[in-house]
Specification:
With about 375 residues, this protein is an alpha+beta fold. Helices cover about 20% and strands about 25% of the residues. It is built from eight helices and 16 strands. Strand 12 (about 275-285) and strand 13 (about 295-305) form a beta hairpin. The longest helix is centred in the N-terminal third of the chain and has 15 residues, at about 110-125. It is globular and about 70 Å long. It starts with 14 loop residues before the first helix and ends with a strand. Residues about 75-85, about 145-150 and about 350-355 have low confidence and may be disordered.
């Protein structure tokens, strides 16, 4: 694999990886359920798939419980940690032919997933310093401004979160996202924004998608509570920047590589909500064989993973600069214990501000997939 300095963020992905992306983007859900090439830990992996994995490490249940408890206790009373499996360890699986690709199925328990979703979409979305795909063309209605001394990762009560959230607006609210140029774009109502138009949010380092680089000016601080949780699980990297992607069924993320960071520390990817397919691969070359030993031919190493809510991926080593993308988000696969968000679950034991606060938006996450992709920009 070429050194990072020779990798081009605009380079065209290899043909074999693009073809796999196209194949799975068109595949029906019923066929996905039966496809033997998809690695799906929830369904169960085959002996052949198991042979492709190396169990390199593990996280003890006690370690993870401590991190999740600390994370959950930052909003109101301690969060219930129901949802942990009965195993004493969570195994970290490394893919043998894509070294550095680690898969952690069912990493985060349900209560932590709900807490993380709330931090990202109530608090962090409402921070004016966190850019979204809408900022280029629209003025965002930050009517509920946070206190002047509020910093990313500040300990807040549930009531403070409530006052910050765009989800406190009614679906029929007259509040509009007004265009910077009315001759080009129309105003957007809050329902249209939250249901479809909001596609991504950046935390910490504010990535410039057009130029595929990080601006030179100092970024807003990365949310400390999220950084502590992730660094506790993945101590090899320091969370400094993140992209939060919001998907609906029918949305995709094109095949690409993340090569804009100044260091090669690993990438963290956490899935919330509906299932998504994740295609990842590397292409190099190998000798052409006995008849043409001097000729090198492309060799593709490819894997397709079905990621479910709470799963995590860690891309380091060779996998750090692997080609990857999301060809499909699978409708109606959000877990039942999450699907009411942002409204409270009917039987939840978690401490939430007011069960009726977000009731008008009940079920917003039911047909959404949220992906938190975290990276370290500098050593």
């Amino acid at each position: 694999m070429a050194p990072k300095q020779f990798l081009d963020a605009h380079e065209r992905p290899p043909e074999a990886i693009r073809e796999a992306f196209k194949l799975y983007s068109k595949m029906k859900p019923s066929a996905l359920d039966l496809d033997p090439d998809i690695m799906d830990f929830h369904r169960g992996i085959s002996d052949d798939q198991q042979a492709k994995l190396l169990q390199t490490n593990s996280i003890t249940k006690e370690q993870l419980m401590a991190l999740c408890s600390q994370f959950g206790s930052l909003i109101g009373p301690p969060t219930s940690l129901s949802g942990f499996n009965n195993d004493s360890h969570i195994l970290i699986n490394e893919v043998r032919n894509i070294p550095g690709l680690h898969i952690l199925p069912a990493l985060l328990p349900p209560s932590t997933q709900r807490d993380l979703l709330s931090r990202l979409l109530h608090r962090d979305l409402s921070n004016e310093r966190h850019m979204t795909n809408l900022h280029k063309h629209y003025e965002l209605p930050y009517a509920l401004t946070p206190p002047e001394n509020l910093q990313c990762g500040t300990v807040m009560s549930a009531g403070q979160l409530e006052r910050l959230s765009f989800f406190t607006y009614a679906r029929t609210s007259p509040v509009l996202f007004r265009p910077k140029d009315p001759d080009v774009h129309k105003s957007l109502p809050i329902a249209q924004v939250l249901q479809k138009k909001l596609r991504w949010l950046t935390l910490g380092g504010q990535y410039d998608w057009t130029n595929k680089m990080y601006p030179r000016e100092a970024p807003p601080p990365f949310p400390r509570d999220i950084a502590d949780l992730l660094h506790g699980i993945f101590p090899e990297m320091e969370p400094q920047a993140a992209i939060v992607n919001l998907y609906s069924p029918g949305d995709t993320l094109s095949i690409h590589r993340d090569v804009s960071e100044d260091c090669d520390r690993g990438l963290i990817s956490v899935s919330l909500g509906c299932d998504g397919l994740f295609v990842i691969g590397l292409e190099d070359s190998q000798p052409g064989g006995e008849n043409e030993p001097e000729r090198y031919v492309p060799r593709t190493r490819l894997l397709v993973i079905r990621l479910r809510s709470g799963d995590a991926i860690y891309m380091s080593g060779e996998a750090r600069y692997a080609w990857h993308g999301v060809p499909k988000v699978i409708a109606n696969t959000c877990p039942t214990w999450l699907e009411a968000w942002p409204a409270a679950q009917p039987s939840t034991s978690m401490q939430e501000s007011d069960p009726d606060t977000y009731n008008e938006w009940r079920g917003w996450i039911a047909n959404k997939r949220i992906n938190l992709n975290v990276r370290q920009m500098h050593d």
